[in-house]
Structures are given as structure tokens and as C-alpha cells.
Protein 1
Amino acid sequence: MKAKRGSSAREAVRSRLVVALDVATADEAESLVAALRDEVGVFKVGKQLFLHGGPQVVRAIRDRGGEVFLDLKFHDIPRTVARAGIEATRLGVKMFTVHASGSLEMMRVTVSEVQKTCRKEGLRRPKILAVTVLTSLSRDDLQRVGVRSGVESQVVRLASLAHEAGMDGVVASPHEVGPIRKACGRGFLIVTPGVRPRQAEWGDQKRVMTPGEAIRNGADYLVVGRPILDAPDPAAAARDIVADMERAFAARGGRLRLLSRPG
């Protein structure tokens, strides 16, 4: 019985590891899905892969048993983003992103139209996430584009706007998880890129934590790319990250209830 409980807890943690399929071709993506589908919970499809493979790459991942996080960061007028969100929903993705800076109205309309479509067509409703401040950006970068506040203030401002709009959660650096949780509550999903095992290179990320640190801070999903994709054994690298996540949850008192929400 104990082994079963441990296995269940491990599965709950595994389901919250997202692998970023930052590869050039659909063949590479499908090979990685085949190697990793038993080790991770979700596969992230970004702009490069989607522009190469189109909607079919999402269907191929799902046909192989993988859940998809479609990370295209929609940012346009409300009606255009809402229509894009509806098409993402019809593809069966688990999550997709819009830019929080696109406005309260853009986010509200997207949530509303996706919900209407799901009811009308009997579709699973994806989690709709707002991107706050990219993990590659620093305070200096924000100031250069006219944002006078610091990174944390801007992230919390955008997260609060997303919460008001009815979004399911946000994408934000692990460094801002605590302030977001304080502003938006425990039921608000926080997906954190900028996660690197301690020995990994940072690449173009600037606000980085290890998987265990991000979980201890209260993150719900972790997005990891190159440390898994570039590893000699990607499946083993993913298992090591899940183990680090498990230890972090244990350090939080084994509180897995955040992992039990639907979707």
C-alpha cells in the first residue's frame, strides 16, 4: 500500500514537469515524445516547432499520448486572440498562452469565447495562461521599453490583471512565485520557465532557479528545455528533475493538493 501511495505521489509530481520541445523538426519532436512520454507530464510547443510542423505536430504529440502546452503567446486585438484561442482549444491542447500586456479586455474576451465554444462543442477546456515578464528580461530591459517599475512589480501587476480577467494562471519566473501567490491566491496556476538543474548552463535566461527551489517557492508547473533535450540520456535527466521536485514537495510537508486540480 505504501508503494502505491508513493507511486501516486510521484505521478502527481511527474505530471507537472513540462518539456519544451525547442527543436527544428516534427520528427525530432516525435522522437522526444516517444522517449519522454512516461517521464514527464506535458510537452511545450513553441513558435519554431509550430511554424515548422503546424497544427499537425500538436495532433501527432497527442496521438502518441502526450499532453500539449501550446506556447504561442497570442497578443493582438481581443477578437483575434479569442479566435486563436478557440482554434487552440479545438486542437485539444492542455494549456495555451496569451500576453497579459494585451489588455484586460483581450484576456476576458478570450476566456469567455473559449468557454462558450467548449460548452457548445463538448470540448475539454484548456488552461489559459497569461505571460507576464519573460525570464530573459531584466529591470534594464523593461526600462528600455518604457516600464518604470521593477520586474517583480510589473509581474505582479500583470498577474493581478490576468486574475481579474478570469485567466487560469500565469507564466512567470520562479523568483516572482511568492508575490504572485500573495496577490492572486492559492487556486491560481503558476507555470515557471527559467528552471535549470544546478549544474546546467543558464543560456539566455536571467531569472533562474533549480527545479527544487522553484517548487519550494510554490510553483505548480516547471518548464525545462535544454537540460533535458541536450542530455546524453533525456529520460534519465527528466527522472532526476522529477526526483528533485519530489524532494521539494516533501520539504513543503508533502503538500500535493495544488497538483490535484483538474486539467
Protein 2
Amino acid sequence: MTITKTQGTLIGCIAIVLWSCDTIINIFLSRLPIFQILTIAWSISFIIYALVLSYRRQWVSVKQKPIIWLIGSLGICGAHTMLVAGLRVAPPEQIATMSAIWPIMVVLLAKELFYGQRIRWLSVFGVILGFIGVCMVITEGQFFSGFKFAYLPGYLFALLSSILWSIYTLMTRRFYNITSLMMGIYLGVGAVIALGYHLMTEQFMVPTAMEGLLLALKGGVTLAFSYFCWDFAIKRGHFTLLNSLAYFNPILSICLLILFGISVAAFPLFVGTFLVVIGSMLCGLPKSTR
């Protein structure tokens, strides 16, 4: 079956929605140690991918160069670890908006470094608007005077997460022929490393029934399935448009945070997210309209 670019893009949108749900799951799992969560969730994801690889008899496809394993494991697991850590030390709506920085980086880096894509002036304007929107949410509309240094570690975690994910996204686009099932291998590597950190630095806590359900949902759906969708989409969908649509990830996350009573609806929050929407729309405009 041939997948069109439009269908590939729609598959990527599924990942964006699931990532928004993952933010809520991480908050509800905040009682548990970080590396315990990651060990369990990534192990579940790896098992699912391993079963698929076994069923399709495609284990030979995971024989890749060491650089592929390094970029994949660091990009996927490193970025996710930093994001979960950021949610522990800063307001979730602010960390969610910080995640909008990585599509900005992708748009800028993709110009010359990887694919020779030309950035039009509307794309640049869209990136600027998106960045202003993120800053407005982070500082609650006060910009420099509203920056809280107490949350700086969380912002740095979120920034590092965005850097790792943007590099992974660009490099994945370059290594087009690598199977999307490699995502499970990256998560398997991450699970082993997370287990080591958990045993050395954390005390195991027995999950409740609800936490166990959320861990299963996180590992099987908001990680395993969403990563597969995104990896598949950036290889076969509209690459620039997908990265523009990724701006909607923090917006959806914030809506869910407000819906669950975790964050409070405020004017700077709405204005900031509106700017992010406008910025993403400008970045995603077809070339013929620019």
C-alpha cells in the first residue's frame, strides 16, 4: 500500500495529540521516581516493538551503524528524560510551551545544514511569533521582569530536551531508509540505562493500580505508538508542515492541564498560545502562498 504525503502527515498529527496526553500522564505519575517511570515505560515500549519485529521477522533491520544507535537513543530517551525532569521542577504549562522551541530549531537548522531548504520571510516571521508566544507564557506576560530564576533548572531541562529532539528529527529525516521499528531498539537501550540509574539513585515505589494503568498507557500508547507515528511521518509526510503543526503540542497540553485543573487559565496564557498558533500557521503555509 502506497502512503501519500498527506496521509503521512496525518499520521504525524496522531503523535502530536498523544504527546499532549503524555504530559498529563507524567504529572499524575509524579509520586514515582523519574527513572523508575522511564524504566517501566520504555521496557513496555521495547517489548511491543520486539514482538512486532519477531512477527515480521525483521530483526536483521536493527543492524545499523553505531552512530545511528547513538543518535536514536540519545535523541529519543535523552529528550524524554529531560522533559519529564523539567515537569518536576517548573510549572507544567511553562515546560509544555518550552517544548515548542524544538520545531523552531528544526526550521532554522534545516535551511542549510541538512536539506538546503530555503526559509521564506513568512516562515521567519512565524518563528518569531511562536518564540514570543512561548516567552509570554513562561513569564506570565511580563517578559524579562517576570522570569523566575527558581524555575531555571526546569527551563534548562526543557531546552536540552528540545535540542536533542530537534537534532534527532533532522538526522532521522536524513537517514530515510532506516525502519521505524528501530524506535523500539532506542527505547530498549534507554530502559537499560534508566534501570541502572534507578538502582543507583532511587528507591523503588510500588505503583498503585491507577499508576500501573498509566504506566502501561504511557509505554504502549503515548510513547511506543506515538514515536512510531512521528518517525514514520517525518520520513513520508510533509516535513516542514509537520514541524509547524508540532507547535500545537504545547497548546493541546495546556488545554488538558486547564481541563484537569492543574493549570489556571490566564490572559497571557491565551495570548501566548494564540501567537504560537499563528506562528505555526505561517511556517506551514504552502510555498505557493508565500
